Amino acid sequence: MIDNKKINAGKLSGINNILIKSVNIIDPVEEKEYRSDILIENGIIKTVGTDLKTGSSVDFEEFSEGSRIKFANDLILFDASGYHASPGFFDMHVHLREPGDEDEEDLESGTSAALRGGITSVACMPNTNPPLDRDFLIKDIKNRALMYGFNVYPVAAATKGLEGIEMTEMGILKDSGAAAFSDDGKCIQNAKLMYEIMKYSKIFEMPLILHEEEYSFSSSGMVHDGYYSAVLGLDGIPSLAEEIIVARDIMLAEKTGAQIHITHVSSKGSVELIKKAKEEGVNITCDVTPHHLYFDDSCLKDYNTNFKVNPPLRSSKDRQAIIESVKAGVIDAIASDHAPHLETEKNIPFSEAANGVIGMETLFKAAYTLLCKKGSLSAVKLIKLLTKSPSKILNINTGKISPDSMADFVILDLERESVIRKQDFFSRSSNSAFIGEKLAGETVLTVCNGKIGFINNNVNLEKETGKF
Amino acid sequence: MLGVKNIIDIDDLSSEDIKLIMENADSFAEVLERDLKKVPTLRGKTLVNLFFEPSTRTRTSFEIAAKRLSADMINFSASTSSLKKGETIIDTVNTIQSMVVDLLIIRHSDSGVLNFISRNINTPVINAGDGKHQHPTQALLDLYTIKKSFKSFKDLKVALVGDIANSRVARSNARLFKRMGMNVSLVSAPMMLPEDMSYFGADIFYCIDDVIKEVDILYMLRMQFERQQRKYYPSIKEYNRFLSLNTDRFGMMKKGSIVMHPGPVNRGIEISETVMNLETEMPARIKINNQVNNGVAVRMALIYLILISRQENI
User: Which of A202, A430, A456, B111 could be joined to A258 by an S-S link, Cβ 3.0–4.6 Å?
Assistant: First the structure.
């Protein structure tokens, strides 16, 4: 099934002249939405405007009933009326598992999963094996991602071997292409070391992505410390485990002026601390995952390990507070924390199971279904949290849908709903928290770096290779 | 007939199920008083005791219960080290299931393992204790013991004393006792209580003296040193000061009240040596051995009811 879809994209991927007709373009920078055509030539957006022509003789009226796509040897015509176009999503927190755990995911499977989710750029975390703590490792990831025509921004380790003892060669790592520093998956416990890391990263103007967890509070815990941990007899991780370190790092950032980004924020107390710090001018941003927005700890009732994540799914109160913080603009980005794990690490007793869920293929859908379709957030605001806002945090200029820029966008069917099924994932792993959920906002087409990276099989393709 | 196929969580049983179990336990208790303590009821049935955590008392209790019913009982002690060799728990369980057994009795040190196993196999399972989660057969035999000592469950005052957070017995018992209309209190210390106590729906006290004169049932929990990641209670001396049952405190208990403990007792910690030695003299008040005795009858009832439900379904 996966191969079939890949062939489909592959057949089209050589073509980089595309005319997209009457799509609703979402511009997250200007925060507006407008209907337009997009003409792409040689992978570059040539024109954005109404009533564009390819110069060929074929009119769109000639499309047979229900068919949206026609393609010839070097040209695709796509009737996208009713669909929305957004700049390609930027997922600023993923685990691509290279090097070391290629059985769970690799650059090839990871990038195809990303493209299926409408993601054209990712920041990948350094907790690999070995960890991304040296320049050649960063260069290797960057170079190999280019082979797949995908934008991978590796995040380098903040401490050697992610051991939280000595800081890495931050200057050299920056020069080799690191986008930020993080010990993600772990948290630097030593406050003095963290202080030094902040002072040093500041001189390179590099952001620190922080996984916040105080180990004495979290050590034996597996789930949120609350009602369900008491019911299930599983040791709890209190919200305090996160909040104590958030408070510490805010103090350190205030003192040093470093740019910090709190990733996968999970508790009400944390977002309150971050809100206050922002008001006081601290250089701080934060992201949340779709699973922390969508689920709370009541999901753990059956000990389903696809809800075992770190930080843990917290109480419904925490979840509500996080949703409100997204709406209020306290949360700057939504990121998947895509964490592939094999069956042998997940289909086992809860206490032995690994933490983490995959999330790139459901990133937009889950957020859109919850925040826009069932909630009151506008699609434009959501898309900003998936594009402009995260790329700004990492000082990266990502694509926008405007003339003379590289074609890098996603076309979405916001209406189409589907039930997430375990067998459908492009990722090498299938440990998704969303299996069985009905989500809206299907990716129709993803164009990444001027090339078609994904096309949804459910879109009616009229395979006609004749003249246009 | 029971409304459930598996017995994992005490809350899975309906009030009718509980009533049925108590009634059947009565019949089997009568069998156990005979000279010939055996009935042919489950001849040809095969049960497996699958214990991933060391246990003598519960395992033996199930084994005797099965044998009294004429079922074949096989003990499978899976050391966790053999599981580490690459065989997953599901492989182990499937291997045993392939040998066509009728019922699995499982104990494991991880909470929720029975929920996980029961999703993956067809054979019915009885939870003989999973981590800090549940120990439903203990709760049922305790209820049966209480039933034999009092006229009615309603408004009985019961205090569970000790390490609540790490106790599967506390979870199963507090829920069952409350459901039966008893008034449940917990006597413990903050280090031994879960952060959110609403599941237990109980009043909380920090010293046994606060409840000792009022209670009908004083239920002492075993201090689970083996489940503590670190020593979080200051000392035995401190425990004795606030949470232990000693002769003075036993003397303060009201007439007709009883003392229970799931065993094995840490003598000198939960219950003083002197009080322990009173049991032979005062079997109506100190019920610890009586609980063990009732355990066989209640487990016979459970095994019987689960297996006949299966038969009737076929």
Answer: A202
Instruction: Specify whether the CB–CB gap between A213 and A243 falls below 8 A.
Output: no
- The Cα-based distances of A383 to A261, A274, A369, A455, B30 in angstroms read 19, 22, 13, 20, 72
Distance in angstroms (rounded) separating the CA atoms of residues A320 and A323: 5
Q: What is the ipTM for the molecules in this complex?
A: 0.90
| Contact by Cβ (8 Å): A163, A128 | no
Q: Residue B46 forms beta bridges with which residues? A: B72
In the stretch 329-358 of chain A, residues with CB closer than 8 A to chain B read 344, 347-352
Instruction: For residues B92 and A173, give the distance between their C-alpha atoms in angstroms, rounded to a whole number.
Output: 48
Confidence of residue A7 (pLDDT cuts 50, 70, 90): very low
Instruction: For residues B148 and B283, state if they share a domain.
Output: yes
Kind of pairing between the strands at A438-448 and A409-419: antiparallel
Q: Which of A226, A303, A344 sits opposite B112 (nearest CB)?
A: A303
Instruction: Write out the residue range of the structural domain in which residue B166 sits.
Output: 136-290
Q: Find the helix packing angle between B57-68 and B288-313, rounded to 10°.
A: 50
Question: Which pLDDT score, from 0 to 100, does residue B313 have?
Answer: 53
- Tell me the CATH number at B29: 3.40.50.1370
Place of tokens 């109506």: B284
Burial of A252 (0-12, 13-18, 19+ CB in 10 A): buried
CB contact under 8 A, B112 and A233: yes
Q: Are A406 and A111 in contact (CB under 8 A)?
A: no
Domains of chain A: 2-85+404-414+438-462 (2.30.40.10), 88-393 (3.20.20.140)
Catalytic residue flag (residue B135): yes
CA angle A253, A258, A264 (to 5 degrees): 70
Q: Is residue B33 part of a domain?
A: yes
Residue B309's pLDDT band, with cuts at 50, 70 and 90, is: confident
Q: Does residue A83 contact residue A35 with C-beta atoms inside 8 Å?
A: no
Alpha-carbon separation of residue B220 from B263, B264, B266, B294 (angstroms)? 9, 11, 10, 18
In B, which residues are within 8 Å of A306 by CB distance?
none
Residue B178 bears catalytic tag: no
pTM score, whole prediction: 0.92
Count: domains in chain B = 2
CA distance A171 to A180: 11
As a whole number of angstroms, the distance between CA A326 and CA A247 comes to 20
**Residue B32 resides in a domain:** yes
Please state, in angstroms and rounded to a whole number, the distance separating the CA atoms of residues A310 and A300: 14
**Is there a contact between A230 and B195 if contact means CB atoms under 8 Å apart?**
yes
The single residue of B34, B84, B85, B230 carrying the catalytic annotation is: B85
Q: To the nearest whole angstrom, how far is the Cα of B177 from the nearest Cα of chain A?
A: 16
Low-confidence winner among A7-11, B63-67, B271-275, B307-311 (lowest mean pLDDT): A7-11
Three-state SS for A327?
A: helix
**How many cross-chain Cβ pairs, A to B, lie less than 8 Å apart?**
73
Report whether A398 contacts A87 (CB < 8 A): yes
- Report the catalytic residues of A: 337
Determine contact, residues B70/B41, Cβ cutoff 8 Å.
yes
